[in-house]
Amino acid sequence: MCGIVGYAGGRRAVDVLLDGLRRLEYRGYDSAGVAISYEGLKIFKDVGQLSKIQSNIPNWEGGMGIGHTRWATCGRPSKENSHPFTDCSGRIALVHNGIIENHLSLRKQLEEEGHKFTSETDTEVLVHLMERHYDGNTHAALVTALSEVKGTYAVAAMAEGDDHIVVARKENPLVIGVGVGENILASDVTAILNLTSRVIYLEEGDSAIVSANDITIFDAQGNRAKRDPTTITWSIEDAEKGGFEHYMLKEIYEQPTAIHNSLLGNLDEIYAGAIIPDIDVTSVKLVACGSSSHAAMVGKYIIESMAKLPTTVELASEYRYSPGTGENPFTILLTQSGETADTLAAAREARRRGCRTMSVTNMVGSTISRETDHVFYTNAGPETSVAATKSYITQLMAMYLLGLRLGTMRQALDRAEVRNISTELRSMPRYVNGVLDEASEIENAVEMLASANHAFYLGRNINYPTMLEGALKLKEVSYIHAEGYAAGELKHGPLALLDATTPVVAACVNDHTREKMLGNISEVAARDSPVLGIGLEDDRDLAAITDIKINIPTVSPILSPVPLTVVLQLIAYYVAKKRGCPIDRPRNLAKSVTVE
Ligand code: F6R
Description:
By secondary structure, the protein is of the alpha/beta class.
């Protein structure tokens, strides 16, 4: 997804911008560019990697500039369609994340007025609109231009001769890093952490003027606004690879710490209103996309069994357009980034319907955190690999904490039950470490998957969604087609696809569906599919009917998704590695999906 960086200060802006953009590379991009205030306004942009731009860019000094990495949405990847864009006179440069919905009609008007367009993008109308209104005040030109557009944006612009950058945001994140004698801005805090840990998150509709020594912020109504800086505790090292071959593996190994951090303090406060205060909840709806929606599906089992509350799960992209039933469940939106366009739209729709809302997110200060009644921060730390791993595990922790909290509020759980689950949750980092200790065994076991074109992931009950997540992980990082299936559904169709070339990964834990699951695995083995079983250490029945068995520690069935997920993540990782895939940045995918 697109990234923005801007800088004003005493350093060479080109270096700061390229360094910041490099830290956003994980989001995915197909082209990049910078505009530098140096002997006028200079622009350099191209398709391809930042390294190519770095080696070809002229030696421009200059301490102010804006940069962008583009992930094509409106207009194909090309030099012409890359940002920054400039107006006809070449006096204004602009970069943008988001979508201008009325760009076609605006473009027509502007062309009739004589503006010449050079790209196919929606963004370019913004710079021409600024030109239309520019009378020497760049901030006023930007604000007026934005008042004419329909859509979403994080935008940064600067004009020739200015000593400042102007920015604005709506439904796209933008953060300003506060330095001494220098200020930096970016669409993602990861890009600025090497310069400062003091950041200001702009609020919805804010605009700002950022120079080396000053930051002036205006709210959506154009009034001067005060936004206090937040101190980010992540170090730059936290966001880097730390000796692991890939970010994905590093982040898988960070899970014991992430689990610990997400539980921190909350388990002791279950009765004292941690997670949510005492509120009247009669039903719950969980809404999310992708991996987060699988965490939501696991959450349904947790909340129903711990709190005895009717719980439904909906994909955010479906929920936002659904008719609604007139009922107002407590609506919980799960999103690692807090910026996923569909999930944000779902949050707004839920509030419009009159629902009390809560977000479960990893990003402090993210848009969703500010647009929901309650927030639970998962505290997973920065996740760089596109595939969700530690953010997913901590979403599961949020679901357990929520289940405990709702269960105690409704007196569906007694103190002994709360104590037992809490004790097991506290041991979860140790159990996950136990799985990580088996990593080389898992690496050896994945041979049967590495050469396959198709695979099935089977589970039941709370581990049906766990296997959906396992299949998604395999698909996205190894490019193998994998289907997650509720094991009981196999005979209703997909069994026809199974043969010796279609490996099956099957999870079996000691819950009330165990016998049925063993039966389903036998059905699969009878069709000659190679089976990789994942189950408890002492489960000899499972070992007897599978080709390979991977052990997980013995935990209560309701907590089994945690160690199981870690095995599934390692399976996906090692298969992708064997197949030589670009694990951290799979083709066609982006970390944060801020467009619909
Ligand atoms: C898969 C993955 C995606 C995200 C989805 C939602 O590994 O990461 O499926 O889970 O794009 O993203 P968030 O959680 O940021 O809303």
